[in-house]
């Protein structure tokens, strides 16, 4: 009976499965495989929490590890190894969007972006930018799903960087370019003050947060500050950061649609602030002392801390083998709670060497993307 269910009914059933269960269903028979491949799309997977994807800073010839949050046992069985040998070039992860991972090439001097799906092993270069540049800041926005098999779409913004000057040498590039996955092209959409281009090039990591129509970047130069690009007006602004001169690390995430800032002080607490009306920061939470000391190994130094988050979860991490602090929304109870996730030291009995990672939150997409087949 199960093998003869109508396609639409079976797809509706599959839409309630978690990614790991869907993968098992996909391998059962040809009919289930076709249904899971084309109709069980990322938008249906959003019923489940995102997976934490631990990607090496430089990925060629290595692998990434994926943590499945559905399994609350907090054991090595919650981690999976995903080979990255399908990547044809050396890359560095930038961000996750639309069930895909945005990458930047490290094998070419001009800036080049690519996308991949580590679960379906698909990879593709994005088109070349209109302005050749190196080391710009990148911002990503996920758009509404498309109509073809629930395809998800996104826009990528590139600002700053160094470009070749007309008379030789180099200059800071003030043009802002935008890539739209629906038309698969880059276009110049505006410009920025040169002093902002300098700061985005030299002191801003390649990651961003989108909230209420504005892309935000955290500068990496102490004292920290936040730079924002309002997309509708192509205008730029700068925000201050609470106790900016005392923070050892600072990072931005989006939480419940609002811009949220995490920062840790030397020998002190790690705090969480939320941006309110009038661009005023309001402290809403502190990392529990015991969990903070466990995360820091008793050293009291937040310097190497990294952060990733979305609306329902915030993760503090360092490297693959160290444990991770998670602040997660408990939807049924209307509150947020802290808990600990052990680092990934082995998978299915195979011991792993520790390495530096970039953590991404991703809803696994087991459907083959038409964008990656373009």
From TrEMBL:
A UniProt-annotated Pfam family: F-box-like
Gene3D superfamilies hit by this protein: 1.20.1280.50, Kelch-type beta propeller (2.120.10.80)
Coiled coil stretches, renumbered: none
SUPFAM superfamilies membership: F-box domain, Kelch motif
Residue span(s) of domain F-box: 2-37
Keyword Lyase set for record: no
Keywords: Signal
Signal peptide: 1-23
This protein's name: F-box protein At5g49610-like
